[in-house]
Amino acid sequence: MIEILFLLGFSLHNIEEALWLPQWSQNATRFHKPVSNNEFHFAVIMVTAIGYLFTFQYFVLGSTYAIAKFAYLGFILMMVFNTFFPHILSTIYLKKYAPGTLTALLLNFPIGSYLIFKEIHSLEDLQFLLISTAVISIAILILINFLFKIGKSINE
């Protein structure tokens, strides 16, 4: 099941970021606000759990409910786009490796792209995918900032 392989790649990506992104963020303020280990680790654990929930609901409901399928695929496409922004873009701009770039490029991008191409069969599917990707991306970006605040307050 390729979905499980994507989940493994997503998990490895988040582990790579958890290990090195907090320190990297201290000198990369154009791409990421400086975050402490606690802030980032809390947020990345929660986002990883959300990824697992999207995958679980896709397995349980995806063949029955289009919204479940497109919520999952929107999450996948968000992670495919994440390969380019911020990872590759920040690596090129800062001339310094951005944590998560390697796992995004070698795992999330190819496996995620395969999943998208496997599931999109019509222009209508593509429209639903783009809408769900936009909604999920905005929701996750808002949520991440909230999670950073919670993670920071846990440290205090």
**Structural class of the helix and strand makeup?**
mainly alpha
Radius of gyration from the alpha-carbon trace, in angstroms: 16 Å
> Into which percentage range does the β-strand content fall?
under 5%
Instruction: Please report the distance between the alpha carbons of the first and last residues.
Output: 42 Å
Q: In total, how many beta strands? A: 0
Number of domains: 1
Mean pLDDT level: 95
Order of helices and strands: HHHHH
Low-confidence stretches: none
What does this structure look like?
83% of the residues lie in helices and 0% in strands. It has 5 helices and no strands. The longest helix has 33 residues, at 123-155. The chain has 156 residues and is an all-alpha fold.
How would you sum up this structure in a few lines?
With 156 residues, the protein is mostly helical.
